[in-house]
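Milestone M4 deliverable, item 7.
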Amino acid sequence: MNVRRSAAVLAAVAVIGAATPAAAAPSPSPSQAFPSALYGGTDPKYDGVWRQSLALLAQDTVGVKPAAKSVQWLARQQCADGSFASYRPDPATACDAKTMRDTNATSAAVQALTALGGHDDVTGKAVDWLKSVQNKDGGWGYSPGGASDTNSTSIVTGALAVAGEKPGQVEKNGKSPYDALLKLALPCGGDAGGAFAFQPDKKGKLAANADATAAGVLGALGKGMVVKPGETAGGKSGEKSGASCAKAGTPEQAAANGAAYLTTALAKDDGHLMSALAGAEPQPDYGNTADAVVALAALGETAQAEKSVRWLEKNSASWAARSGPAAYAQLILAAHATGTNPRDFGGADLVKQLGATGPAPQTAEKTKASDEKEESGSDFFGVWWYVGVCLVAGIGIGFLFTGRKKQQQL
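Output delivered:
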């Protein structure tokens, strides 16, 4: 769910078969007209539905009712077959064979619209489409027919669970999403033991990937992107630490192994993960760290999750400002999972900052309308108060002149 991979993953998968971080999207020129209902001001070509879904989901999670037009925009992005593309500039134009369907965008939209409620027809069609493009190994790729990867399989699994499906019973060729995830989990042994790989390489080997591991933990637990504080896999919260890797015979054990890997990786760098891009200097990976916090919280590894969210409080502000709505949403979800106040996140109000990247939420719209009505009412009564004062003053002056006239007559 790393916000960086969502902006360029479509092109990356087509070229090298794996997600790579995107360069900063260019600012829109005056000639570009992005939808007013859309969150964020950068080109939505590769991440419009993704960032919109995360923004709406995060707002709903903290009790904010998103703008109606923003929700409507997301729902209208759906193709007739139930799928979502990364972005459709003109929803009135029907999807065709050239439309690049996106399992990640579809799954994110399902999770957001299910949480908001009232869109059963949209989410139902989307779930049916996701089932129809399941691979024979039980997993999903970024695009229909693409090789299964941990990130895509996990977010689809979360969408199925949120929509009321039982992921373990969603099978293709006798294989469920959990079967696919187990095959993408590295065996115990060595520094990478217990991690998830994004995909096998050309030789079939698995390489540990922290981004995929954070996603894989949630997927193996059958959880969506929203994790409530204290809502762990076993139904109990705690402060587990020092978990070790064991043979992953079940999805739950694979999730525990992945969490152990993340805990070790986070502890190495003062509570955060580092990016490992070929040819680039390693640097803090804020989005992946936020995802890891949610994954650990889901499994009850609250000790490390809380340490990492404290690091994010101190260090993620400039990253979020550069990255936009999806980044703010990731931080809000991480804060929510650990019981941290997103409205006072290292002194910043993440909810307000997210809201500023798009249309004002309905609660703000109502408040504004109420204020305008109150102001209008105040003006109305103010005018009549002034008129009343003038009348009283006029009467007083009248009595004064009348009194003077009588004195003159006497």
